[in-house]
Amino acid sequence: MTSHNSPYPSDRQPEHPPAVLARRHLLATAATLGVAPWLLSACASATSSVGAAAAPSTAGGRRRLGPLEVFPVGLGCQWRPGAAPGVVVDSYSSRFDRAAAIRLIRQAVDQGVTLIDTAEAYGPFLSEDIVGEALQGLRDQVVLETKFGFDIDQVTGQRLPGGRNSRPEHIRRVVDAQLKRLRTDHIDVLIQHRVDPNVPIEDVAGTVKDLIGAGKVRHFGMSEPGLQTVRRAHAVQPLAVIQNEYSMLWRGPEAQVLPLCEELGIGFVCWSPLGMGLLAGGVKADSRFAMAPDMDFRAISPRFASEVLPANMALADLVRTWAQRKNATPAQLSLAWLLAQKPWIVPIPGTTNAAHMSENLGAASISFTTQELQQLNAAVAAIRIQGDRLPPAVAAMSGVEAPPRP
């Protein structure tokens, strides 16, 4: 969502020529059990000059996510009620109202977006309800992703003490409720939001397989899972996607997750592809993030702490320099870099600003020569990012391996 939850006062400030759209804020948004009342997710046109020999992994056209085919840039819809009545906020200080959220989604589809991502935990329930209303009359034009996996009362939306819950009976109740909120008869990709440390993944995958057999779900996915859990799940019900954080700010998936996706033919969806706004230009060295009335997730994110943020701005400076070189905005450059890594990677930036949404889609027109990509990758790798990527309580839910079957 723009800077995912930000209406946002710090929305990217134009530092580029008029021909270049203002950059986007931040998008990934996350919340965590015990750390914030929201939930972590999920996970935001100018074209560039293209050199003589394009790299094998360039942007453009459609992309494969396992068995699916989608536009190269999707839309993340992760919102929750704001402190003020009628206000909808994301995780990064951005806000608008429900009507504007519906318009944004419909405009995205009109402009070619075919992957819409949300989750029951975003709100809870609010984001799914908005997406369901927005897609009336447009449902057959999109691949709709949503998620399960937290212990949320399906009537009240109250988060229960259990934290995560992927018990088969709970999954079935969640999906029935999701179908109603989303106003559809099927979910294209049902994603386990985080691995449940108390439920064998074979039980989870088997339940999703049954839901696929019943026509309620079409494909299976997982977010931030342990590697062996992926293999075990895939053996029961093949995964279409893995959804993890990935950007120039956090390159963790490159070590093992992306090779595993390539091996198994699983698509990869990036949440927080704009590094929580840092890559899009919405963060300054002296930025401070609100705890109230609507908490900005970056206020509890170690990489945005005042003592390390000035050093981490070196990456934002690099992105800005390369964006100017490619006649793009920093947001577009950052998304295009992701698209250039593998032909089966799709970022899902979020925004509350229609202009930023359109700007993000322009990333699909940007290509890198082989030499450019090598230079940019080397420059990114040379910058040492300070601070952990997530607060401890949130990080603890990533890379979890499900227990074995008794």
Automatic annotation (TrEMBL):
InterPro entries assigned to the protein according to its UniProt record, in alphabetical order: Aldo-Keto_reductase (IPR050791), NAD(P)_OxRdtase_dom_sf (IPR036812), NADP_OxRdtase_dom (IPR023210), TAT_signal (IPR006311)
Record carries keyword Oxidoreductase: yes
Keywords: Oxidoreductase
One GO location term (cellular component): cytoplasm
Domain of life of the organism encoding this protein: Bacteria
Ranges for domain NADP-dependent oxidoreductase: 94-379
One GO molecular-function entry: oxidoreductase activity
CDD domains: AKR_AKR13C1_2 (cd19078)
PROSITE patterns with a match to the protein in the record: TAT (PS51318)
PANTHER family for the chain: AFLATOXIN B1 ALDEHYDE REDUCTASE, ALDO-KETO REDUCTASE
Name used for this protein in its record: Aryl-alcohol dehydrogenase-like predicted oxidoreductase
Protein's organism: Sphaerotilus hippei
